[in-house]
Amino acid sequence: MKSAIATDASESRMKAELFRYARLILTKGSGAGATLGLNILLARLLVPDLAGTLFFCIALGTFVSLISRLGLDVACLKNISALRAEQQSSYLNRALILALMANVPAVAVGLLVVLFSETTQAHFQHAAVLFGVAAVGLSLTNIASETLKARHRTSEGLFWQTACQPALTLVLVSILGNELTTVVGCFAVSYLLATLGSVARAKMSLNSTPQSDAVGWKEMLLLCTPLMLIAVMNSIIELSDTLLLGVLRSAAEVSIYYICAKVAALSTTLLFIINGTIGPEISRRWASADRAGTFAIVGKYSRVMLGLAAIILLAIAVLHDYILAVFGEQYREQGMFPLLVLASGYFFVLAAGPLGIFMTMTGHHRQYLNYNIAACVINVALNLLLIPRYGVNGACFATAVALFLKNFLLYIQFKKIKGVQSHD
């Protein structure tokens, strides 16, 4: 009798877990689909030079948002669930205020890049608006979204973080047309609505009771600075190629590279879901000294990710011609080599599984930061060496080498940590 009850309970938990992951995959998948659809629409509606200008501004806005949010998004994911209910609301409010303050100098520097970049010279005003709303919107939306994940509202957090803005932009551009002013206006409206919606929902999810012993400003900054540096290094590896192509080459090459990078990075969609889901659980288990349980979670998901990485790389290798043809003939003709090289680099990102979130959630973020810095330096050096001569192909090679190095070092460090803990 007891055995039957235990079996029923186990089956119920399994069904609930499967349903939860199905919902998360649907949410993140719809966001990835909307982003892909938006990129296809822009690539087909706009000439490569104009599409490259938009992609350059979005990439620059994404990079600046990582700096301006100061690592507070990861700090919210890691810390809010561990705080007392009365402290959580003030933590989010202070995170948003710090991000807004950091946006002022960060966006000002970014506007100088927009002003002097060859890619944006012909459409400076449009480029400045798009960059500004992207930078501010992404920084605040990510902080609010990670707060929702910390409150175990992962599906809703993913919706605001990945699905709302691209889906809304896709609908608006489809309806209103492809004139440059209209497209930039559509982006501005969608970023604004996603920001307001995510912040409102994050605030509603927290206890608004005032608390006198709120986490201090200085303590928050000291806690999140290493997390910000990790995110910035990751961003440099993934976005410096786009930015340097825009500065050193042409908008058309930015467009080719951006599309290939987005297609290759689609393979990390599931990893994004898993990291947001198991991050708080890894933090909780490690804090309670449940080392075996922590390593069991990481090991289980790492094996799954390795198998998926191999399947996805093989699929891109076989179907690359058909994939690129969706974006247009120019992308099919010039994007084969860049796509295959970038797919090889992202294979190592997916194969590493949740090792990065493990390092962040267990207090090993300084080692993780050191590896990211090494990979970042190599990436920038290779970009400066190869982009002037080889253009898109050189940028892809630099990214693939950096992604391999970062994740290989991450794996070595994880094995060391696991060995030490097992010995103790």
Question: What would a concise description of this structure say?
Answer:
This protein is mostly helical and 424 residues long. It has 16 helices and no strands.
Number of strands: 0
> What's the alpha carbon Rg, rounded to whole Å?
21 Å
Q: Which structural class do you get from the secondary structure elements?
A: mainly alpha
Q: Outline the biggest β-sheet.
A: none
The helix-strand sequence is HHHHHHHHHHHHHHHH
Number of helices: 16
- Estimate percent helicity: over 70%
Description:
The chain has 424 residues and is mainly alpha-helical. The protein has 16 helices and no strands. It has helices at residues 2-45, 48-68, 72-79, 85-116, 124-150, 154-176, 180-204, 217-248, 251-265, 269-287, 291-325, 329-334, 336-351, 355-361, 365-390, 392-423. Helix 8 crosses helix 9. The longest helix has 44 residues, at 2-45.
